[in-house]
Amino acid sequence: MATPARPGIDPLELEKYRPQLLKFAMLQLRNATTAEDVVQETMLAALQSGGSFAGQSSVKTWLVGILKHKIIDTIRRQSREQPLDLGADEVSLEDLGALFQDDGHFQDQPADWGDPEAALTQRRFFEVLERCMAGLPKNTARVFTMREVMGLDTDEICKDVGITPSNCWVLLYRARMALRGCLEQRWFGAKASA
Amino acid sequence: MRITCKEASRLISEGLDRDLGVGERAKLRLHLALCVACERVNKQLNFMRRALRQYPGPDEETKK
Question: Which of B40, B45, B62 shows the shortest C-beta gap to A176?
Answer without folding.
Answer: B45
